[in-house]
From TrEMBL:
InterPro entries: Cupin_2 (IPR013096), Flavonoid_dioxygenase-like (IPR052538), RmlC-like_jellyroll (IPR014710), RmlC_Cupin_sf (IPR011051). Pfam families: Cupin_2 (PF07883). This is Cupin type-2 domain-containing protein. Residues 30-98 form the Cupin type-2 domain. Residues 103-129 are annotated as: Disordered. SUPFAM superfamilies: RmlC-like cupins. CDD domains: cupin_Bh2720-like.
């Protein structure tokens, strides 16, 4: 059994992205977006569910915009263009579940720049089995 006090784990992670757990069909990831930062506009071939732990931001999914804050949950179906932007003075902290996994098992990306670089280099691929 894996057990996480997820809000606490997410709040304690200073990393842009940290994979906490990877299963055959899903993956649990915590993210911290710094003030004035963003995840970056992207499209995944997997479904994604994001739950916001602290901070405030803007969710943009398929051209629709909505403010997000602690306790909000946003579903991004596969194939939808999306971005999440920190609009507040504090980090925007969240955890997300991908189905199936989207990132390398155990991946830790300290910054968005590092995450982008590793993705572009093909070094952030999900497990194949």
């Amino acid at each position: 059994m894996e057990h996480f006090t997820i809000a606490t784990v997410a709040e304690q992670s200073p990393d842009f992205r940290r994979v906490l757990w990877t299963g055959k069909h899903t993956q649990l990831v915590v993210m911290t977006i710094p003030p004035n930062g963003e995840i970056g506009e992207e499209v995944h071939e997997v479904d994604q569910i994001l739950t916001f732990v602290s901070g405030v931001g803007q969710a943009i999914v398929s051209g629709q915009e909505r403010k997000v804050a602690q306790g909000d949950l946003v579903v991004v179906p596969a194939g939808r263009k999306h971005n999440f932007v920190n609009t507040g003075p504090n980090p925007l902290v969240l955890y997300t579940v991908y189905g199936p996994p989207e990132h390398a098992d155990g991946a830790v990306h300290k910054t968005k720049e590092e995450a982008d670089r590793l993705e572009e280099a093909g070094k952030d691929e999900p497990p194949t089995s």
